[in-house]
């Protein structure tokens, strides 16, 4: 059981967890020798993740409490022994499903890592993906936590081996080819053009009305098309995109204050708030785990 200060049964993570509200802790990091993999081990009680998506895959094992994940088709829940699987770019939220919160060990393998493993061990054609979001699979959940333990011990050989075993078994049990995207409708094409504008003008984006006028449509039609294509309205998507870009800047060594300005946040506190909500740890802690530098 987790206690205040980040200690828990089985030993604390290799680095001090990020100080949080009472009973909460989190560590989001990478292990040397494991390219293409991010790791998160955390316990959350009051923290909730807003709508966001990931470039790669998400695989987590709930070790205590209950996690509630909000998807377009509804909310799914996983308790101890349950695993959650999300494909790239799946918009979702996450929060505690019970008052005492939840603890979990999460793996974020890149699309390249999963594709490589799928090519070696399955006959899947096309892009591999998970056909289920939640499964009761305590043994696989245990293997996911073992990836973390090996990585925290600095044993990249064991961690990499266990990671490949985990992904291979997940694909065999719950995997399949992701659906091929159908030809884009006029609304989807408009949404894609809007997204390109927001990416290009991230630091000084137009208003919804201005953007719609530039694209030759109405604000409501654009809002509806964008939500249909990307699962969230343009302003929510832009915040998520800013945080994703800030992550890359922090990984390259930028200070949080520099990253905040570079992605269009008005100041570092705004980056801190949105980054912590979406990633689960503050930008300073995220940067330290990847660069070894002290926070700015």
Automatic annotation (TrEMBL):
Q: Domain named HTH araC/xylS-type: which ranges?
A: 192-289
Molecular function via GO:
DNA-binding transcription factor activity; sequence-specific DNA binding
Sorted keywords for this record are:
DNA-binding, Transcription, Transcription regulation
Region (Disordered) spans which residues?
1-21
Matching entries from Gene3D superfamilies are given as:
Homeodomain-like
Its name, as the record gives it, is: Transcriptional regulator
Pfam families, per this entry?
AraC_binding (PF02311), HTH_18 (PF12833)
Q: Does the keyword DNA repair apply?
A: no
